[in-house]
Amino acid sequence: MNLNATNITLPVSDIITLHANVTGFNISDLSLSKNFKLMQLMDDEFIFGLKNLTGSFLANYEFVTDPPILADIGELNVTIGNNTI
Fold first, then answer.
1. Four-CA torsion 45, 30, 25, 57, nearest 10 degrees
2. Which residues contact 16 (CB under 8 A, 6 or more apart)?
3. Of 6, 35, 47, 59, which is least surrounded by CB within 10 A?
């Protein structure tokens, strides 16, 4: 699954503004156990859970602050393996 580019401008107080761009966001190899109830509905509550969740998340990012104190360009890669929530 690929998502479109996202541009973010985030003012932090009156001191600094963060301009960020995220592109190439990709989710791959996402899976979870089929032998587990995703949600259990009860009278006045519900239980939500994931078992054996695996997957990969990848995104390219760049950011710069105004005034230009901090800046970075990079790739974020997160891999999740056999987690139960």
1. 90
2. 65, 66, 67, 69
3. 35
Residue 72 confidence (pLDDT) above 90: yes
What are the residue boundaries of the structural domains of the chain, listed by start? 2-83
pTM (2 d.p.): 0.62
User: What mean pLDDT do residues 44-73 have?
Assistant: 90
Nearest in space to 8 (alpha carbons), one of 62, 60, 59, 57: 62
- Distance between CA 35 and CA 23 in Å, rounded? 35
Using a pLDDT cut of 90, give the percent of the chain over it: 36
One-letter amino acid at 18 equals: L
